[in-house]
Design goal:
heterodimer, A: alpha+beta, Butyryl-CoA Dehydrogenase, subunit A, domain 2, Butyryl-CoA Dehydrogenase, subunit A, domain 3, 2 domains, two-stranded antiparallel ribbon, 11 helices, 50% helix, B: alpha+beta, Butyryl-Coa Dehydrogenase, subunit A, domain 1, 8 strands
């Protein structure tokens, strides 16, 4: 168990060295990916959420989220978050993860994998991040007879992975499972179901996006101070200042909401952090995904406006962040899906219960 | 740089939960006893000497101040809980709120010992109402343009000029005013202003009401004609008030009152939408709840930093900027979301009434206590843009 600062330090060092966004923007191929992933693996980061007895680093939930925030700060185009989440899910079923990049599913409300009595898995998953890049998929399935859930590890070679890219150009694939026999399958603990993964994934993406928002704020502020127009840096124009102040406000709201959800999940009962999916946790996670998603849309727009034409070029680093901000909004359900879920729950609880819920956080 | 922006996931400590229950029980009793009507829009602006005295007796005014001035030496986070529960319950805190939030802390820092011993315990007992004399006809957001003069006279100063938009002045026992004691210097246009504690009973002060477009009377014009201020009512450094303003602003800007002023509209919206809203209603509601949760988490985070002795000036300005825009937009969003709710909904009339009031007061939310434009300038400076 390492301390937060040590993990953050290690991750920052590796990301700076292997995944510097400016360097990657100028690189002509994906050759950087192999060494970068190998370095992250050597440091034990992808399996940070897997306990040591299952072959992982056994890092706390909160430290894992710190790591994910850093991945966002570097617009990391590798399945680090997905592998963390897959490891977290497999650990819930006491399954030791294999080496290499992993991904996880379902990532959308309504996607379902059914476990037949014969022990095979079937279902269509609409959007699995990095399925083309990963060898294995960790998933949560519903038993055909309706008797609970199971956590399974499958080889992606046994499934049909439909080629596809996200708006950022990262692998994002539909995956078809037709009577796939899992490598390992275990009963999910009481309270762990598809919502548990959605919640953990949504909080993770929110954290990742808040990191990317902090990065584009830095990029836009630095650019405004450098770029001269009408004989002064554009940072001196009030219109530009006010746009950047709004971007700072959006980044701040994102940091606060994502940080709060991460802390909430980290301090939930260890056995099954999202077990009860209690209202407080729903509020935290939904609010993070909703508010950060909103901030991503507004914030990316402002950053592009400040950067002007140069920010719209392939050679500038900005798009590595903005495109991922746009893409990540849709993973583990978008703002609208979470808002409907949260709004329905708030309405069902009734008006008098709204403030006590907010104040309890 | 954004890397310097900090919004840690700070939670209120357990002692705050106990306090919150105490405050809720007190408010429930007061409402049950008919001491005020929480449904009446804008009741928070209610001025109630009796209520403020009870709050003082509970130990909920001057909570963080030293005991020997009547304070209670509790934490800033405990004060936060009291503030937000009173705000949510529309409690009539007008008499003591400004003194508790702003004026008391200024006195603690800059008043003479005798003034502190005289005034602070009375604030804590909920007996004293304060106003803030900053704006003038020719000086609003640009505070350093203040022209109301304080000129030397035997044993003190004579004040001449006019303050305007002065909330509470018609109730206030005291006002903390910013007056010109010297011309601005060539190299520092902020130089030459001095803060004074003004006893409103002083001869030469007249208060004229300025009615608001809501029909309410909140702010005033305060005219000074040779009003005498004794020397010991100078607060801090003569000509140096500009150095004194900034730190307190973080407290003033980041509190729960900066995003909860129209919250009752959201509560009524939940009621009017019913327990099983359609997708449009649920989504709209979900987004609003997510937004206010994020704001509260930002605000608590700033409170936590203040509690830890930090000076999160930029973070506080961000809370007020984002928070006031949210509470200002809320009535419009609620109106949209309730557009198709049937006329017969049980609380439709209450909702309409509250919506009307919130819509009327909404424009002031991004003006009072520092406009959006001023806040964005502060944020921009914090980001290193100016």
């Amino acid at each position: 168990m390492e301390s937060t600062s040590l993990i953050a330090e290690t991750a920052s060092r590796l990301l700076r060295h292997h995944c510097d966004p400016q360097t990657l923007t100028s690189s002509v191929d994906a050759a950087w990916q192999g060494p970068a992933w190998a370095a992250l693996e050597r440091a034990g980061l992808p399996l940070a959420w897997v306990p040591e007895e299952l072959g992982g680093a056994g890092v706390g939930i909160e430290d894992g989220f710190t790591l994910i925030g850093l991945a966002g700060r570097y617009a990391l185009a590798l399945p680090l978050t997905e592998t963390l989440l897959a490891g977290w899910l497999l650990a819930r079923g006491a399954i030791a993860p294999p080496a290499g990049a992993l991904t996880c599913a379902p990532t959308r409300q309504g996607d379902k994998v059914v476990l037949a009595s014969a022990g095979t898995l079937s279902g269509r998953l609409r959007a699995v991040p990095f399925a083309e890049a990963a060898k294995h998929l960790a998933l949560i399935a519903e038993r055909e007879d309706g008797n609970g859930h199971a956590i399974a590890l499958i080889a992606l070679a046994d499934a049909q992975v439909v080629p596809g890219r996200s708006i950022a150009g990262d692998a994002l694939n539909a995956v078809d499972l037709q009577a796939v026999r899992p490598i390992t399958i275990k009963d999910a603990p009481e309270g762990v179901d598809a919502h548990s993964l959605l919640a953990m994934g949504a909080a993770a993406r929110a954290m990742q996006m808040s990191g990317a928002l902090a990065a584009i704020l830095d990029i836009a502020v630095a650019y405004a101070n450098e770029r001269v127009a009408f004989a002064r840096p554009i940072a001196k124009f009030q219109a530009v200042q006010h746009n950047l102040a709004r971007l700072a406000g959006e980044a701040a709201a994102a940091m606060a909401a994502a940080g709060s959800a991460a802390e909430a999940l980290a301090s939930a009962p260890a056995a099954a952090p999202t077990a009860s999916f209690a209202d407080a946790l729903l509020l935290e996670v939904a609010a993070a995904k909703i508010r950060v998603g909103e901030a991503a849309g507004v914030g990316a727009g402002i950053a592009h406006q400040v950067l002007g034409a140069i920010g719209f070029t392939r050679e500038h680093v900005l798009h590595r962040f903005t495109q991922r901000l746009w893409a990540w909004r849709d993973d583990f359900d978008n703002e609208s899906a979470w808002a409907v879920r949260l709004g329905a729950r708030i309405a069902a609880r009734g008006s008098d219960e709204l403030w006590p819920l907010l104040a309890s956080r | 740089m954004s890397s310097a922006l900090s919004f840690d996931a700070i939670r209120l400590p357990p002692e705050c939960d106990r306090l919150r229950q105490e405050v809720r029980a007190f408010l429930a009793e007061e409402i049950a006893a008919g001491s005020y009507d929480p449904e009446e829009p804008g009741n928070d602006h209610g001025f109630s000497p009796e209520f403020s005295r009870k709050v003082g007796a509970k130990g909920w005014i001057g909570m963080t101040w030293p005991r020997h001035y009547g304070g209670h030496e509790r934490s800033f986070l405990e004060r936060y809980v009291v503030t937000e529960e009173f705000r949510i319950a529309n409690a009539p805190v007008r008499l003591h709120f400004v003194a508790d939030r702003q004026s008391g802390p200024v006195l603690l820092k800059y008043a003479t010992e005798a003034v502190k011993q005289d005034v602070l315990p009375r604030i804590c007992r909920g007996e004293v109402c304060f106003a803030i004399g900053m704006s003038e006809p020719g000086s609003g957001s640009d505070l350093f343009a203040a022209a109301t003069r304080a000129t030397r006279t035997k044993g003190g100063w004579l004040i001449n000029g006019t303050k305007v938009w002065t909330s509470n002045a018609h109730h206030a026992h005291y006002l903390i005013g910013l007056f010109r004691t010297s011309p601005a210097s060539k190299d520092n246009r902020r130089h030459g202003l001095t803060q004074f504690l003004v006893d409103m009973k002083t001869p030469g002060i007249s208060v004229n009401p300025i009615y608001q477009m809501t029909g309410q009377h909140d702010f005033n014009e305060v005219v000074f004609q040779d009003a005498f201020m004794p020397d010991h009512h100078v607060l801090g450094e003569v000509d140096g008030a500009w150095k004194q303003a900034t730190a307190e602003l973080a407290y003033e800007r980041s509190g729960p009152e900066r995003f909860l002023e129209t919250f009752y509209v959201l509560q009524e919206l939940v009621r009017v939408l019913g327990s099983d809203p359609d997708v449009r209603g649920a989504e709209g509601l979900g987004r609003l709840v997510a937004q206010v949760h994020a704001l509260r988490r930002m605000s608590v985070s700033v409170a936590g930093m203040l509690h830890a002795g930090k000076e999160p000036v930029v973070e506080a300005a961000i809370v007020k900027d984002v928070g006031t825009l949210w509470e200002q937009a809320l009535p419009q969003r609620a109106r949209d979301l309730a557009a198709f709710v049937e006329e017969g909904a049980s609380n439709r009339a209450t909702f309409e009434e509250q919506l009307r009031f919130a819509t009327l007061i909404a424009p002031k939310l991004t003006i009072q206590g520092g406009t959006t434009e001023i806040l964005r300038g502060i944020i921009a400076r914090g980001l290193g843009l100016r």
